[in-house]
Amino acid sequence: MNTTIEEILKIRKPRPDYPVIEEIVARFSPRHFLNEEININDINSIFEAARFAPSGWNYEPWYFYWSKNGERSFKKIIACLGKYNRYAQSASILVVGCFIKQFKGKKSYYRHDLGAAVMSLVLQAQHLGYYSRQMGEFNKSKLVKMLKIDKTHNPFVIIAIGKLGEYKNIDEKLLKREMDPRPRKKDFVKKLD
Amino acid sequence: MITTNQIIDIKKPKLNADLINVLKERFSPRVFSSEKVGDDDINSLIEAARWTPSSRNRQPWFFYISQRASQSFQKILKCLSESNYWAKNASHLIVGCYLDEDEKGKNKYAQYDLGQAVMSLVIQTQSLGYNAHQMGGFNKDMVKESLTIKPLYYPWVVIAIGKIGDYSGADQILIDKDNKKRERKEIISQKI
Description:
The structure holds two protein chains of two kinds. By secondary structure, chain A is α+β, with helices and mostly antiparallel strands. Helices cover 35% and strands 19% of the residues of chain A. Chain A is built from seven helices and six strands. In chain A, strands 1, 2, 3, 4 and 5 form a five-stranded antiparallel β-sheet that branches. Chain A starts with a helix and ends with a strand. By secondary structure, chain B is an alpha+beta fold. Chain B folds into two domains: 1-31 and 164-184, no CATH class; 35-162, NADH Oxidase. In chain B, the strands form two sheets. Chain B has a four-stranded antiparallel β-sheet, with helices on both faces. The model of chain B has no long low-confidence stretch (mean pLDDT 97). At the A-B interface, α3, β2, α5 and β6 of A face α3, β1, α5 and β7 of B. β6 of chain A pairs parallel with β1 of chain B, so a sheet runs across the interface.
């Protein structure tokens, strides 16, 4: 089967009912990347976007470890992923997003704020032409050990980033998963009187 | 006396790398103008949240939207911490909830995914020429009760939306809080 990027985009690209910025219109989370080096300026921009995300009481409760395809650390991260997520080996970089637990009294927003920082990062990456896919399923204790993650950093998400892959020679099973549309709920908002 | 432009200027991030304009411009003001955000724009910023990625596509978020001078707006204001009193001038207040549980069971990514969805919403808001300011300081039980929010929805953040206001006529307390440079950690990532 000769699937083209256009066919994938037709299924996976958002179809917003109201106008949204181009980065959101273009964004989806592929499982297939071009293993091509990302230049360091772009990588710096991607993390800069996270750095300026807002956070509760400006705690900035996030930290990121990242690794380039081909490096030893990259293989280590891959080894911590579930079988289901091994597609990530085609990514240009893998980012381990960690939250830092911090409380204001009993209140804590570190999960929420890490989400905000990652969303900024993802949209900045999208703007530069890079797609990303986030993964929550991985062996955390193994990762902490293998990468010598700081005690205060709690790995919560692994983000695969890279250019969209060429779909012509993709594995059949993976292709099937890629052709799965990601419908969105309509019932998620209520306008109050 | 300080002007709005001076505040906007002082809030410009000191960047170590280039960013898309909307991220350069974004900050969370405490002074809003009386101008109303139009319905089309509200639809757009909600749509931005809708297309956020989420763990297993569970979309564990729900938003209650309230406009100034409505009954619900008054109710939400009553639930805010005293220090958030400035929110009374916002055009809209949006209560962002996470869904702790759905048909797939408990969701440990619910708060995280709400954070992503709200950030999409905030970025879309900024791109339309408005500002957004998230608040965690409010009485959650009280909001839940007074807006009759569904049992498994957890109100987690209140977002004030509107046009930035005139700082020259603003309360001194608010000016003092906003007339400050952005503070950010220098290092938040490392290559391994």
